[in-house]
Specification:
Shape: globular
Helix content: 10-25%
Order of helices and strands: HHHEHEEEEEEEEEEHEEEEEHEHEHEHE
CATH superfamily of the largest domain: Exo-inulinase, domain 1
Largest sheet: 9 strands, mixed
Distance between the termini: 55 Å
Number of domains: 3
Oligomer: single chain
Strand content: 25-35%
């Protein structure tokens, strides 16, 4: 074993002395080696023994088995590893998407085609309120130690949050975002809730006289009802009012993807690909919505709801129609983790549609082309786009049964943008996957 020459590695050596069995030691070493590297990077050698012991407890699974890894600078917090750092703007919440991928393979969720709004807060500094949003109260951008490249908007209790829309929402649109909670394992009010509204847009930060909302409960002590309600006070009155006993307690703690589809008068809402609501007459057919609003209620001072990756898009994709009639199909709905070739679970909805189209037209081969935005070097983006194209091919082959011999891949990096790379939304348009008939 290497010489322990720092405080962190000294602690690691002590743990090894107590570990016992060689197999257990090897497994613990693998985890602790990563911890030591992270700790060195963050200059934790000045931390106290107490803080280091807390970090070791998290890594070794003494936090109830919910922590997914990643280093933290702990100052306390709940037993499941949901802790906040000492002024670094970084907080820890676990994440696991295996079940979500399985669900999306069966789900009928498909995201909209043309991006109206996208915000991952990449253009905003940590600690600030995002420039393209409005609020009646306060909020701030943070990062999480298990995924430091992703920024989250921290929502506070009983406060409205509204992203700027460039136009009224069309008749057919989808809205998606990632949602997590913080410090909501203990002491959560039974009335606690998160709301996403579509309002009439007549006044800022106001749902107006015509609205529809979905309500999600983070209360952890028993299964709470999730609700939908739609009201038109201009004449139609209550259009929908429903509830479901779906259990999202763990998903609310670990992180979940919320997706809403409005098609004409029909309103659907999904959590991690599972359909919660399907209301065929929930929307007034005479007027379009003009605002998306988020609200929280019953959240304690040390608790928060976090959202990111807001994507609003128009229309429904038609991969078969476009691919085999025009010879190519490009989509931004196939999404990946930041700076990674790992497909997000919600990408599997459109992949399923594409697989069906490809398998139904057996005589055609397909070239899969990956494109990136301009963040990073040309060489890095070229390599990343190639890996992403290969990931798409692998998913089509292994998850949906497409013949691998019919699929070829290529990466073009940032070389063929469809929009400038000056905003988060334009970058999202450039991060696309293209399918070309050969």
């Amino acid at each position: 074993m290497k010489t322990c020459n720092t405080l962190v590695t000294a602690v690691l050596c002590a743990v090894f002395a107590l570990a016992g069995a060689p197999q257990a030691e090897a497994q613990i070493w693998k985890k602790l080696k990563k911890k030591a590297e992270d700790a060195a990077t963050r200059k934790l050698e000045d931390k106290t023994k107490e803080e280091t012991e807390k970090a070791m407890d998290t890594i070794l699974g003494n936090d109830g088995g919910t922590n997914s890894g990643g280093s933290t600078e702990n100052t306390g917090g709940s037993d499941n590893g949901d802790t906040s750092s000492t002024g670094s703007g970084t907080e820890t919440i676990p994440n696991n998407d295996t079940e979500e991928i399985t669900m999306y393979k069966k789900s009928d969720w498909v995201p909209g085609e043309d991006i109206i709004l996208f915000d991952d807060f990449a253009d905003d500094p940590i600690g600030d309120f995002p420039q393209l949003w409005n609020t009646k109260g306060s909020g701030e951008l943070i990062t999480l130690s298990d995924d430091p490249k992703q920024k989250w908007l921290k929502l506070y209790n009983d406060t409205w949050y509204e992203p700027d829309l460039p136009k009224d929402l069309p008749k057919d649109f989808t809205v998606e975002f990632d949602l997590r909670s913080f410090n909501m394992t203990d002491g959560v009010s039974q009335t606690a809730g998160f709301y996403v509204y579509f309002g009439d847009g007549k006044k800022p930060l106001n749902i107006g006289k015509r609205w529809v909302y979905s309500y999600l409960s983070p209360y952890p002590d028993w299964v709470k009802a999730q609700n939908i309600k739609s009201v038109d006070n201009n004449g139609d009155g209550e259009l929908a009012n429903g509830r479901t006993e779906k259990d999202i307690r763990q998903a609310f703690q670990n992180g979940m993807h919320v997706a809403i589809s409005v098609k004409g008068r029909r309103y659907r809402m999904y959590v991690n690909g599972e359909k919660f609501f399907d209301a065929p007459r929930a929307i007034n057919e005479n007027e379009n919505f003009g605002a998306i609003l988020f609200d929280t209620y019953g959240i304690g001072d040390e608790q928060a709801v976090l959202i990111t990756n807001l994507r609003v898009a128009e229309g429904l994709p038609e991969p078969r129609e476009k691919l085999f009639k025009t010879g190519s199909y490009s989509t931004t709905a196939i999404t990946f983790d930041v700076d990674s070739d790992k497909l997000k679970p919600e990408a599997y909805g459109i992949l399923k549609e594409l697989a069906t189209a490809i398998k139904e037209t057996q005589e055609k081969n397909i070239l899969i082309v990956g494109h990136t935005d301009s963040d990073g070097s040309d060489a890095h983006n070229l390599e990343l786009s190639n890996r992403r194209a290969i990931s798409v091919k692998n998913a089509l082959v292994h998850d949906f049964g497409v013949d691998a011999s019919r699929l070829n891949t290529k990466g073009k990096g940032e070389s063929e943008p469809v929009a400038s790379n000056d905003t988060a939304m334009n970058k999202a348009k450039n991060r696309r996957t293209e399918f070309i008939v050969q």
